[in-house]
Protein: Ig-like domain-containing protein
Organism: Gasterosteus aculeatus aculeatus
Amino acid sequence: MMNTRKKTRLILCMLCLFLNALLHIEPNWSLLFTGEKVSFICDLREGNDTDWNYSFSRNDHLFTTNRTVNRYKSSSLTRGDSGEYQCVADHKIRPVTRESNKVSVTVSGVPRPVLTVSPSWTSPGDSVTLTCSVEPPSAGWRFFWFKAVPDMSHYYTFELLPGGTTGTEQGSYILHGQTHTAGYVCRAGRGDPVFYTQYSDVKFVWSGGEFVQTFIFLHKGINVLFVLTLFVLCVSPNDVSSAVNPAASLTVSPHRLQHFSTESLSLICEGNSTEWRVMKADEDGDVSICLKWGEMTGSTCNTDTRASSGVYWCESETQFSNAANITIHRGDVILVSPVHPVTEGHSVTLGCKLRTENLLYNVDFYKNDKLIPNPVRGELLISAVTKSDEGFYKCRGRKSPQGLETLTSAESWLSVKYPEEAASSSVFLVPLVVGLVSGVLLIILLLLFLRRYRKSEASSLSRSQRTNQSAATDHMINQDESSLTYSVVELKHLKKKEKHDEPDESPVYSDVRIASAADYVTYAQVHPPTGKKSNEGKSRCAAEEETVYSEVKPGTFDQ
């Protein structure tokens, strides 16, 4: 058991720790970067914070003293702000001082995040995952995603991807239906106000096939967005209707993926642009322009012997071309393979070429490092290509039939695309379907317009009739203010006539006089006859059908 002295010392020590100040930082990040702002908080954990004066020090040197609040907010941090921080609190009345613990702060330069793309080579419709990470790892980041837009005066400008305004908590972003060559970047941000990292390096997703433009048609009066995007992988102009033209394409001469280091090659850009540049991403991912390793003449980049292995493509201000993964080989043998993907169902021939143009002997071909049985020496013919034929190919041969030395080429990827028929039919199927939908919507809109027009016309006619009637009425009234007719009707007893065709009913006579129009109504004073009907046997119907006669005389009505 612990003796009494040790217990007392432990209690005093714990009390001392409890009564001392506690310094902590908000936000509480283990690693800080230049440009960020933080707050140092000196927490006494007792009494009222306003009863104390506070001082803050870095590496035992005071940088602010006699503060009445226990919080110090820094300006934008620099590398020189790294060190050990401590706070001291002095009571305003009592001679009491509290010292805090020491907190170590490390300030690093603004980080550049690392972006990776997977896969880097795609077929139309593939999904691509972008992954962004900040090194060294730290907390609190949100990630922002951008696409790279070619800028002919610089390299690229960046545009936010959909939904990227507020960033994502996850360090990944999935692109669905990737269809063509494109570049992407990311950056991270944290804090309030937001502190941003640098942009990452541009990373590309490459497509080996040609693709056509996206057409957008807006029909006036209809909210119809006609978007037609057709991607035709490596289809020559003769294979597709002239109505479908590639937006941008790269042609390599000589037309193969592998070249000797002593060869010069031409990279030709074609498409709907007057200004082009040829780009290259080397094996380390560094991107450079033709002017650094070749000569740009119009839309053609000639490389002489300064070309190196890498992915090549064309850019204009609005377009990316297909890409070609070119290998510059310093050895004596290269594989002869097509630059663009091969159409499924078509044939392709692979060859093996010696630098000296001499014939190679005992040539073998390999796919993914496995020997391919081949009865024909010197070349490999695949009569009907399928997706299963995709892979890395290389060749191996000898300079002489009895030679022991074997020469092996580098590997190149053989890509297979969907049949041209499917792509070609899509060219006409999509416009047909969209055209039909647009036609139906146009008819509906026309019917609605006609219906509204008829309603509007009927309403206008009704208003016109009412206006005419009102005008006619006003005209009649204004013609003669004394045009209203008043009558005094007196019912008088008439003797019954003997003749059968004479009227038996008691007629009614009235005097009608013209009065002033001020009353706008017709008045009649009627006096019923006092006598009884002489013909009691007359039918009830005849008795009820009494004719009324009136005599109209112009005059003045006396009320």
Notes: Residues 509 and 523 are 15 Å apart (CA to CA). DSSP finds three helices and 45 strands in the chain. The first strand starts at residue 22 and ends at 26. The mean pLDDT is 76.
